[in-house]
Amino acid sequence: MSKKVRLGIIGLGQQGGAYAKFITDGMVPNMVIGAICDTDPAKKELASATYPDAPFYDDYIAMLESGDVDAVVTCVPHFLHPEMGIETLKRNIHALVEKPAGVYTKQVKELNEFAASKPELSFGIMFNQRNNPLYKKLKEIVENGEIGKIRRSNWIITNWWRPQGYYNSSEWRATWGGEGGGVLVNQAPHQLDLWQWICGVPKSVYSKVSFGFRRDIAVEDEVTAIVDYGDGVTGVFVTATHDLTGTDRFEILGDQGKIVVEGSKTATVTRLKKPERELSDGMGMDDVRKLFMGELNPEEYYTTEVIEFESAWGAQHSGVLENFAANILDGTPLLAPGSDGINGVRLANAIHLSAWTGKEVGLDFDENEFLAELNKRIAEEGKFAQRT
After folding, report:
1. 195 lies in which domain range?
2. What SS3 state is found at 346?
3. Interhelix angle 189-199/341-357, nearest 10 degrees
């Protein structure tokens, strides 16, 4: 193989087009466009005009078997990611799947199991937020124990406002059979991934979800989920697509500190001088009096640091592409291994299943029960075939 990975882009839509531009603009120095594939005839003209040196295919299998590509990225509807990932790996071609890894865990598990049988191939997922320097730093802070053991986390991420016209833009959007869900599978997968990447995978979830709450759609447009990690540790996730002004606030409370992230741009990190319980037990009545009088000196108890990074547009995505190519070329560890993709899908499935059944659902839920409930909703829509 040459020193540059030849990437096949499946789907020349918004994401596929952005990746092609990153490569041709030199933002991914170890990668070139090997070929482009799209079923839309109009995209052939676009590709030939914009990327004249890249062969164009209207059948991704033909592209995989052409010898033109070393790796592919799947910029296609969610249901297709596992199938295309497996077909790619079958032909000994490296696979980078878009988020989410799929719609339901049963299909993502098949992808992961097949990828595990091909350990010599690179298998990644486009979790570009893992390449956000702010979240990378916060993961280090948590793993280093700088805020102690996590006791609670909560993320309110409602800055996904989408007008009705957005949902009316295509037949498959915001459908159970075409897209596989709403805000949980379209807008919020990055946050579901980051939440678990930093705070760990919960044991169970109880959710209240509204379907077609403020939009004329069948799928969810508002979600409130409470998760249980065991040992009294909890988390809350709130997301919606009808909040015009939106909020993005992520808090992690530890027993020796706290992290508050605003707008995914600025983090305020508080580090206690001692674990909170020790500070509490060490306070006498005079300290309590000072507390109520506002006379305690905060510097005796904690320090505060504000963290902020400049992040150029496109740098996170192009960084994942560059890292994926480096993994292929020299074994550089992946920022986002493809096998991690199942975590966010599993949590989204559990949130849906809890809402549908009205019960708390373990993260070890019955995959067949989830698929049956999903297929029931696909059948009610009457637009798409049910899934297996």
Report:
1. 132-309+344-381
2. helix
3. 110
